[in-house]
Amino acid sequence: MLLRQLEPRTARTTAEVIKFALWPLAVMTVLNRVFIKAVNGFVTDDYKPVYNASLAFLNGRPVYTANFDSVDPHYLYPPGGTLLIAPIALIDPEKSRWLFILLNAAAILLAWYLLLRLFKYSLKSVAAPALLLAMFMSETVVNTLVFTNVNGCILLAELLFLHLLLARRDLWAGAVLGLSITVKPTLAPLVLIAAARGQWKVLFTAIGVPLALTAAAWPLLKDPEQFFSRTLPYLLETRDYFNSAIAGNAAYYGLPDALTWGMRLTMAALVAISLWLLYRYYREDELFFVTTSSGVLLTAEFLLTGLGQMYYSMMLFPFLMSVVLRNSVLRNWPAWLAIFGFMSYDKWLSDRWQGLGRNLEYLRITFGWGLLLIVVFCVLGDRYLAAKREGRLPFGIDPVWMKDAPDSRDAAEHADVAEPLPDSPRSHNGSEPVDEKRISVEQ
């Protein structure tokens, strides 16, 4: 059956043409990113400090000894995260790094599949190779694998959480979220979505799992208190390097504190209004509400807190995939200009225009996150004002025409199977249509 699927065939529909073109591109891109780019590595190595800390933990030595005066990657995981990740140091560094690359690649691929299923697409749909290619062409996936960090596993945790949340498996959803928070707090804002949906049991395990793992790790670590006295204060500082948050770029360019706080508070107000509109008018539309709200919350976290790095944008994949929904806020070109800013692997450093190129490269992520939040606010705000003006607020804020607008999922399953050409007889085994004119000429 597998060989039959791989048998070269001539596409008979537009959907098949696109799938036949995209699958080889997607598969070869995945292989290149995992086995060539990631194994080659880069000057930035997020894995080395994690491996060294895990090795120190297993040998009973102090773990939190990083020199924060350097700009090299530091070990920043909390005690519970140290306990979870310590097994990577059971083998030699090179093989351990390769296995960690494979682990993250497998996590991203599983997250890709879960993202398809979240929006009711199958592996036979056109969306499958298109999404796979887009993910592995993005900066966030490439650098997660090349720098060898844990973001792929965090993305998988996010997709598992969303599936379990929508299925009302609250304790399991919280447990998955808690495991990810134990290692990195990136997904912590998602507890607000559970709270907005009244799924309070999520909070029990989302908070309980990190506390339990921290308690278990505490007596096993040589210096657990150093995380809270040394590492945590460093994490709460705003650094002026490798930081695309508003505060980070403001520190790099020397902007006044008043201007920096003005931008952060303005953007925070836009986020608060967007979240209120989503809660007020869309919380019953579960998939749209969960994916859009998570995207707004996480983008705000990257932009408005003290640290935001470009490859954090991986956690926005569920939000970006919501473009297939008929009421998506991303069905406009400014949204995708913003997404280009923080997803593209292109470099804008220029040998000819060095100052301009440097500014474009350093600011495009910040501008991208900011523009995305502005787009969400403007789309939702425009819908609200139009509905208020037309007296439709009691019925929601989606425009009237939207109920008949195309939802890209509508024909997702029907497009999986190509229909034969009309009036074309088939051969006796039902495979390819027979061209009777060609046969008669050949005879």
Walkthrough of the structure:
The chain is 62% helix and 0% strand. It is built from 19 helices and no strands. The radius of gyration is 24 Å and the shape is globular. Helix 5 crosses helix 6. It has 2 domains: 18-237, no CATH class; 238-402, no CATH class. It is mostly helical. The protein starts with a helix and ends with a helix. The longest helix has 36 residues, at 354-389.
Summarize it:
The protein is an all-alpha fold. It has helices spanning 2-6, 14-40, 47-58, 79-85, 93-118, 127-137, 139-147, 151-166, 170-183, 191-196, 201-217, 225-236, 246-253, 257-282, 286-304, 317-321, 333-343, 354-389, 436-442. Residues 407-443 are annotated as: Disordered.
Counted beta strands:
0
End-to-end gap? 33 Å
Overall tally of structural domains:
2
What spatial form do the alpha-carbon principal axes imply? globular
Largest sheet: none
How confident is the prediction overall: mean pLDDT?
90
Regions with pLDDT < 50 over 5+ consecutive residues? 413-443
Portion of residues within helices: 55-70%
Q: How many alpha or pi helices?
A: 19
The value of Rg in angstroms is: 24 Å
Helix/strand/pairing class, anyone? Answer: mainly alpha
Strand content: under 5%
How are the SSEs placed, and which strands pair?
Layout: H1 2-6, H2 14-40, H3 47-58, H4 79-85, H5 93-118, H6 127-137, H7 139-147, H8 151-166, H9 170-183, H10 191-196, H11 201-217, H12 225-236, H13 246-253, H14 257-282, H15 286-304, H16 317-321, H17 333-343, H18 354-389, H19 436-442
